[in-house]
Amino acid sequence: MSDTSADTGAGSSVVPEEVPPSNSEPPSNSETTSSETTPAPSADAPSSEIDQQLDKLKVDDGTTEGGTATGDVPEPSAGANQLVENKEDTIEKIVEDGMYNSATTFEELNLSPELLQGLYNEMKFKAPSRIQAETLPMILEKPYRNLIAQAHNGSGKTTCFTLGMLSRVDVNTKAPQALCLCPTRELVVQNTQVLEKMGKHTGITYCSTATEATTTRRDRIVDQIVIGTIGTVMKWLEKKILDVRSMRVVVFDEADTMLAEDGFYHQSLRIMKSIKTQVQILLFSATFNENVKKLIKLNIPKAAQVLVKKENLTLDAVKNYCVADGWKCTAITGELDPLVRDRVIEEFRNGLTRILIATDVLSRGFDLSTVRLVVNFDMPTKRGSNEPDFDTYMHRIHRAGRFGNKGCSFNLVCGQGDSNILRSIEQYYDSQIRHVQYDDDDAFELAVEEAGLKSI
User: Fold this and answer.
1) 430 touches 16 (CB < 8 A)
2) Structural domain tally of the chain?
3) Burial (CB count within 10 angstroms: exposed 0-12, middle 13-18, buried 19+), residue 370
4) pTM for this structure?
5) Helix, strand or coil, per DSSP, at residue 306
6) What one-character-per-residue DSSP string does 132-187 give?
7) End of a domain among 275, 308, 341?
8) Residue 156 region, left (φ>0) first, then alpha (ψ -120 to 50), else beta?
9) Beta bridge mates, 179
């Protein structure tokens, strides 16, 4: 089994030495000549009987964050009954006390007519996304709970906490009541733009740290919502420009950075301690590593938790790219009905489809002698963290080269995080993985040849 990393950015790349066998599986060590695989059928080949069922899982490409973009603004009572996210998105929800039902329409959230107008007319939303459907009832309904929400980029997190802030503001109180803390000025600008559109009809006032006029201000803030970087907000607190006595909601956007010990943890803690009133704390991020989780548990106990897993959205997007490029392929996840999963695998086994896209549901126990190539679209990590999952990595690549046949695996490496995981895997298995540049066809062919294969 040969193991190769394809670097999708600048830098070098790899054709490796033999990857050692996993502890749980015998190595594929007998050498046989590998024959060339036949090319994939064209896009106009007969459709798979599974495709129609899988197509139901596709995400609308015309969506905006938080809802489906639509040319016609629906009546407030005509919210769509279906969520805009992939129906296979897995939701994990932990609430220690109380029951919260998800919301399929914005009307179920008892939002003001002004906020509904902002959602439908200004944001052009049609229905809540998965993360919104699960978190908004927790944010908006009494008792107001602290919340930790993790979901991938583009899932609608900004809408969640923006609605939370706008809904909690008393328009008759001319003082800061909601605070959104961000790690960068760019994120402040982005969040302010969303707030401006969504709250257009509410009469709620806001200020941000994104302009020079606000960063150098000396007068006390009377705006009801404040969005800013943590450094400027700290200065405002020290100079008593920002009065937090009326504060109701505090949001940490990109909370993994805001609460990391090597990030803004100590400043964030000082701000939280400066607020003496009972406030609702909302933490939103695409990732939370174990250290950040420990710090959150220590400082924000009994917070509700919602996790929307990304893997199935990624899977469906990869399938769509392959189909658009003329390849006949199917996809499989643990969420599919077992009978449908069996038929998908049988189609792949019989050669009706040449490419099978799968989550880790197939990383163990899937044995097919004709599989020559495994591509890791992303690097395997332990659940809920960025730590490499060595066992899953080994199980994945051992799907190729079974029963004494030759096999090859490629890892798509994008960004420093993936590079760090790959280095950890090399060190763990004491095996060098050669890098190849993503646009170097000759290097790819050489990698395949050095794996003992004539072609893929």
Assistant:
1) no
2) 2
3) middle
4) 0.56
5) strand
6) HHHHHHHHHSSS---EEEE--TTSSHHHHHHHHHHHH--TT--S--EEEEESSHHH
7) 308
8) left
9) 226, 250
3-state secondary structure of 131: helix
Whether residues 109 and 31 fall in one domain: no
What is the rounded average pLDDT of the residues 244-270?
A: 90
Joined together, the tokens standing for residue 134 give 């699960």
In-domain check, residue 271: yes
Q: φ and ψ at 24, to 5 degrees?
A: -95, -5
- Residue 16 domain boundaries: 2-57+312-450
* 128 shares its domain with 232: yes
**Residue closest to 112 by CA, chosen among 158, 159, 167:** 167
Question: Is residue 456 very low, low, confident or very high in pLDDT (cuts 50, 70, 90)?
Answer: low
pLDDT > 80? residue 170:
yes
Q: Torsions phi, psi of 22, nearest 5?
A: -75, 160
Q: Is 260 found in the same domain as 318?
A: no
Q: Which of 258, 279, 308 is the last residue of a domain?
A: 308
**CA distances from residue 361 to 159, 169, 309, 438 in whole angstroms, order as listed:** 32, 45, 14, 27
Report yes or no on 292 lying in a domain: yes
In a domain, 68, yes or no: no
